[in-house]
Amino acid sequence: MEFNKKIEELHERRQKLLLGGGEQAIEKQKALGKRTARERIMSLLDEDSFNEYDMFVEHDARDFDMDKKTLPSDGVVIGTGTVYGAPVAIFAQDFTVAGGSLGLMHSRKITKIIDHALKMRMPLIGINDSGGARIQEGVNSLAGYGEIFFRNTLSSGVIPQISVILGPCAGGAVYSPALTDFVFVVDNISKMFITGPEVIKTVLGEEISMEELGGARIHSEISGNAHFFAESEDECFEQIKRLITFIPWSNERKARPFDPGEPKEEYDIEKIVPEDPTLPYDVRDVIRAVVDNSDFFEIMEHYARNIVIGFGRINGQTIGFVANQPLEMAGVLDVDSSDKAARFIRYCDAFNIPIITFVDLPGYMPGADQEYAGVIRHGAKVLYAYSEATVPKITVILRKAYGGGYIAMGSRHLRADFVFAWPTAEIAVMGPEGAANIIFRKEIMLSDDPDETRKKKVEEYKEKFANPYVAASRGYIDAVIEPGETRKFLLHSITVSENKSIQMPEKKHGVPPF
Amino acid sequence: MKKFENLGTLNINANLYKTRLSSKYINRQPYKSANPRLVLSFIPGTILDIPVEPGQIVRKGEILMILDAMKMQNQIKCMMDGIVKNVLVKKGDRVSKGIVLLEME
Prior knowledge:
The complex is a heterodimer.
Chain A (H helix, E strand, L loop, with lengths): L1 H17 L4 H9 L5 H8 L6 E3 L22 E8 L2 E8 L10 H17 L3 E7 L8 H17 L5 E10 L4 H5 L2 E5 L4 E3 L3 H8 L5 H5 L1 H8 L4 E3 L2 H14 L36 H8 L6 E3 L7 E8 L2 E8 L10 H16 L4 E7 L6 H5 L2 H14 L4 E10 H6 L9 E4 L4 E3 L3 H8 L1 H6 L3 H16 L3 H5 L5 E2 L5 H11 L18
Parallel strand pairs in A: 3-4, 4-5, 5-6, 5-7, 6-8, 11-12, 12-13, 13-14, 13-15, 14-16
Antiparallel strand pairs in A: 1-2, 2-3, 9-10, 10-11
Chain B lengths: L7 E5 L2 E5 L3 H4 L11 E3 L4 E5 L7 E2 L4 E7 L2 E6 L4 E6 L6 E2 L4 E5 L1
């Protein structure tokens, strides 16, 4: 029968395309510890939830004998599906087809799925595994990249965009991930750089391996380009799924609520923070002591560890946490930590996620290297991001809040909605030692026993100013609370700010200190 | 309270904090003021030409060297009037960034 024959033909055509670059290329991919593009999509999405589009797309390049070559699905798989029931648009570059190289039709498939995601207001997931531009297609390939970057930018702040680097991602290709919200990398598999080791060798005479130049660890620890590091593709997919549970589908929604749960008893908030402001503790334990089920999902765990960012839930609702980490570099604000915090604050603000800030910092990092690296403009990003954010902003000052650091970390003056302080809080223009040295300089200098006088003066200063009550007397702190009351106060603040509404001055957009 | 390992001391405004120190902090380059008599390579590249020699009197703005880098022939100009004391590289040398190329007096 004619009809059956047509169905058979469809099956045959599909079967051929599903093999991508063929069995040999697939074997090679597997030998590198990598899955194929379609396998990756299947591992990530809910079972049987993937609909593939544009499977039959072909390139029409003619130069360099390209007219004699067919590239199945033009080296990229696109479609829609669900993750824990949440709709997602997804593309995965197929390295088995011409090294996943990006030609015009390949890019058109990607832009098609981004347009879909933007139109349907659903998250976009891009799996990158590509040797780069398809050189045979020349400037058309560059045009393709440009069209993708443009759409990434257009979608920014409207739909969540997730990039997964599961292979090489080099040259211009790196800028699509860089424009998206979250970048996932896997050890030994991900490789990202603008110029590769060979160019570096020719131009600079320096020898460096791909892994040392742009491996997963480099981007997680040093460059800050990646947000999540995994040991394997499986672990990476679990991280992506977990992220999806914390974020909304678009900026028009809130993240899906979960069943509330109490924090675990092992995180006793009364016993985490030492009273002496110079002693360290892990601020993540404070976060775990207040979030549902003590479940804290940290972002950029290995980069600029002096600040902690991530998601948790209170009463089932997603919250973005920003916290100084006294355990690492005393929790100072510096170039990298400012950058890390500011972008996260803007993410939360764009996607209707309330922000809770835990403050305990000695100030900004001193040093010529920091000043040269632009700690002024990078530090300003934090001020900008907090000031601009209109989602509920709740700040808890745990211990030190000195100087500019106090202002920057979600203070009342940047329009925090609720500011609480523990009795251990020290809200002052600077630390007692420094302040006493300046205010009582003459007295100390002229004294018979300068060291003794300095000690006395430091004590005097501590007595008078190293507490939360001076700030509270000005109304800069709404309430001084016991550590044990923290979750109760946070929960209440979140509940009452449900309908927060703010009018910002009308503008096209601000000019943040990028 | 938990006990933590690998703690160092960080001095911020005369307060001493017990904390972990990052590798970036430990490996940072302490500041050294620049010596105006030393001419350094500002970019990695190859020395294409050296139109001056030791003992030569040069004026501010004069070309001391041509450094080929990033597909450009970069002119390295003299920042002060003076005498070339020493030329530490020769034509064809490949230099990395921050290398002393020439000494003035």
